Amino acid sequence: MKRIILSFILICCVIPIFSQIGLRVNKTNQDGSLLIATDERWYRTGFTDTHPMGFSVIAKCNEGMSSYLLQISINSMQSFKIPNGALLLIKTLDNEVIELKQTLEDYNTEDIIGEYIPYANTSVHTMYGLYPISESELAQIANSGIIKI
Do residues 25 and 35 touch, judged by C-beta distance below 8 A? Predict the structure, then answer.
């Protein structure tokens, strides 16, 4: 019986690790363009990481042309702006550096109010940025992985 319970717990822990990323948005606009966005995945360096980052990929398809955006979300105890043109450097396992520039205006990136967490007596602010990324850069990240952001 103990082995059955331990096997069940192991399966419940391993399956979510290998699950695919889901879709958050999959809609066709009135002009016929298609918008697809993945679920946001959060990454942090540890329990005490003060700036965890969330990532999702957005694809816009219109008349045979496709464009991709990497959306990042940064949680912080303080509100700050991600300036238009701010760089995001991604180093892959192949030691190649992918350079992306933020396209949202400054006022769209800042979370002034934040979300109040009563038991911690603090507010958490989430700032957003959109970075255009090519299909080849996405494939490079998917094939080799990321060392550092």
Answer: yes
